[in-house]
Specification:
Layout lengths: L4 H12 L4 E6 L2 E8 L2 H9 L4 H7 L11 E15 L2 E15 H27 L34
Antiparallel strand pairs: 1-2, 2-4, 3-4
The site of zinc ion (ZN) has 8 residues, from loops.
């Protein structure tokens, strides 16, 4: 089940993106920007989703993230300027922002696979050197069962001739 956690989270974000979240990348980070605007700016924002320049404008100075992760749960720019045609408009822009670096996502998503590969590698190494697959006990002098943990000896099956 734990393997399904990441795909499930991505699915939720995907579904959410149809409502208010703009997903884009900037300087190695995945950015989620949730915009709350009034009806006047809504249609304009849908036609002109925030880009990297907007991210620079919306990111407040002196924000320190942990490991590159920046969370801004709720911010407001009372006089956010945007251009529609030749007219310059001012909007009361409310937004939440989450920035996560790709390397962190990669590290987190690769962790379960790394553990699985390490386990398989260790088991293969134990099998080829005549050690118990479960506890690593040396089975070269043993018979069908591991004297340490009772696991079956992979190199001497029960039905093998003695
Ligand atoms: Zn054992």
């Amino acid at each position: 089940m734990k393997w399904l956690a990441l795909p499930a989270a991505i699915l939720i974000l995907w579904l959410h993106s149809y409502f208010a979240i703009r997903v884009f990348s900037h300087e190695g980070r995945v950015l989620l920007l949730v915009l709350r605007s009034n009806d006047t700016t809504e249609s304009w924002l849908r036609r002109n989703p925030p880009n990297a320049d907007t991210w620079e404008a919306l990111r407040p100075y002196k924000v320190k993230g942990l490991a590159g992760v920046v969370i801004l749960p709720g911010r407001r720019i009372p006089r956010y300027e945007y251009r529609s045609g030749t007219t310059l408009w001012l909007a009361d822009l409310r937004y939440a922002l989450l920035a996560v670096p790709y390397w962190l996502l990669l590290l987190l998503s690769a962790a379960p696979a790394t553990v699985a590969i390490a386990r398989a590698s260790r088991a293969r190494s134990r099998a080829t050197t005549g050690h118990c697959l479960t506890c690593g006990y040396d089975l070269r002098e043993s018979h069908d069962r591991c004297p340490e943990c009772g696991a079956a000896n992979p190199n001497q099956p029960d039905d093998a001739p003695v």
